[in-house]
Structure formats: structure tokens, C-alpha cells
Amino acid sequence: MSPEDKLKELGIKLPEAPKPLGSYVPSVQIGNVFYLSGILPLINGKLIRTGRVGESVSLDEAREDAKIATINALSVLKSNIGNLDKVKRCVKISGYIASAPDFTEQPKVLNAASDLIFEVFGEAGRHARAAVGVNVLPLNSPIEIEFIFEVSQQLSAIK
User: Domains in the chain, please, with CATH?
Assistant: First the structure.
């Protein structure tokens, strides 16, 4: 099943790609590889919650945020390549989790993003990964995720 069909099956409708919140571009293409800037779990341009995981944000809430950020990443990617069926592979995910000092389950938070990428892309969704605990993130977001994708053909437009 194609990634586009899989999204439909999962009932996921990609939102409009989020706009950058600073002086950067949402993605950079080098050859067949797209590097996505850090993606926050925004819905309609706003965080649904703020704070650190293990304090004001639960593990389950952080996992939900990781899914939202992943859906936003797929929106950014699709806005650049036109169709997710052109994705050859998810190469790497780097997740930054704003964590309470004693919170050590960052990998469990990021598993939600990894699992969704695998669900959408199958074996092409298996990727390298880093799950890093940090003190604070932009806008006091609980999570920020960077993605690297390889596409099947070199595309010339960079957005």
C-alpha cells in the first residue's frame, strides 16, 4: 500500500504545512535528501500544551505531541515533493524532549513518531534515531523533532 493510501486508511488528513517561526526555511534539499527543520506539535499554528515531560506533561500527552509533530513533518515534506509516494526512505529522526530532571523515558516519547513513520512507509520507514532530553524548547513546547528523508528522484524546487 502506498504512503498516500496508508494515510487515508489511518484517517490522517495532512494539515497545511506549518510556517517557520523564525529566520529559517522549513526544509533543505541536497540531491535526493530532504532535511526538515525542527517541527513542533502545532495545530492551527498553536501548541496544544506546553511544559516539560514528567512535570506538567504526561508521557501519553508527549507521545500524542510526537504524532502531531510527525504529521506536521509529513505536511512539510509533501508540500515540497508533491506526493509522499516519492519517499524512498526515512533516514533519521532526531527528537528533543523537554524533560523534568528525573525523566528518562525520552525513547518512549519518540517511539510514537517512529511507529507512525513505520506505519505510513513500511520498511522504508525504518530509520536511525536520537532521543534527547533537554531543559526547554521554543515556545515551551514539550517536543521538537527533526527528520531526514530520501526521495526517489532529485527535485529542483526548494520551498
Answer: 30-151 (3.30.1330.40)
